[in-house]
């Protein structure tokens, strides 16, 4: 991996319209999203790219539900919903609680709810 503090931009041609000092370019290099974090974020967004998972999250953003009721609301089999919930649990997006013989799922992280709402609002504009 390149050491960003050792990079030099003095040799690069400057843009006539947007001349930027080498120090400013170095500041950008120092602030860019690290490759490792970018990879993790891409995997996270990839996990959210499934329409069924988004529909499940949209329901769970309103209230917690058991698999049976969640399957009825989203129009999927309980098996398919359980599979999607396993993926969402692995990514720590939903949690569950047991009450006697039922398992209830809920959103785990308010950040996911904020992200969901932001994207939804953006698409409505």
Notes on the structure:
By secondary structure, the chain is mainly alpha-helical. It contains 6 helices and 3 strands. It has helices at 22-31, 35-48, 51-60, 67-74, 78-90, 110-124; strands at residues 65-66, 94-99, 102-107. A 3-stranded antiparallel sheet has the order 1-3-2. Helix 4 crosses helix 5 (78-90). The mean pLDDT is 85.
Describe the SSE topology.
Layout (H helix, E strand, L loop, with lengths): L21 H10 L3 H14 L2 H10 L4 E2 H8 L3 H13 L3 E6 L2 E6 L2 H15 L1
Antiparallel strand pairs: 1-3, 2-3
Summarize the structure.
With 125 residues, this protein is mainly α. 56% of the residues lie in helices and 11% in strands.
Mean pLDDT: 85
Helix content class: 55-70%
Radius of gyration: 22 Å
Tally of helical runs: 6
First-residue to last-residue Cα separation: 41 Å
Identify the overall geometry.
elongated
- Unreliable runs, pLDDT <50, ≥5 residues? none
- Sequence of strands across the biggest β-sheet: 1-3-2
Give a short account of the largest sheet.
3 strands, antiparallel
Q: How do the SSEs run, as a string of H and E?
A: HHHEHHEEH
Main structural class: mainly alpha
Q: Oligomerization state of this entry?
A: single chain
Could you tell me the strand content as a percent range? 5-15%
Number of strands: 3
Pfam families: HTH_5
Keywords: DNA-binding, Transcription, Transcription regulation
InterPro entries: ArsR-like_HTH, ArsR_HTH, HTH_ArsR_DNA-bd_dom, Metal_resp_trans_reg, WH-like_DNA-bd_sf, WH_DNA-bd_sf
Domain HTH arsR-type: 33-125
């Amino acid at each position: 991996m390149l050491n960003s503090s050792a990079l030099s931009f003095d040799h690069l041609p400057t843009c006539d319209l947007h001349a930027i000092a080498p120090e400013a370019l170095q500041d950008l290099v120092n602030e860019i999203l690290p490759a490792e974090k970018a990879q993790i974020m891409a995997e996270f967004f990839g996990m959210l790219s499934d329409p069924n998972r988004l529909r499940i999250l949209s329901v769970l953003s309103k209230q917690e539900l058991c698999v049976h009721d969640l399957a009825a609301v989203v129009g999927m089999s309980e098996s398919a919903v359980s599979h999607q919930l396993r993926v969402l649990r692995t990514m720590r997006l939903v949690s569950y609680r047991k009450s006697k013989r039922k398992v209830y799922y809920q959103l785990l992280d308010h950040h996911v709810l904020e992200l969901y709402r932001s994207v939804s609002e953006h698409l409505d504009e």
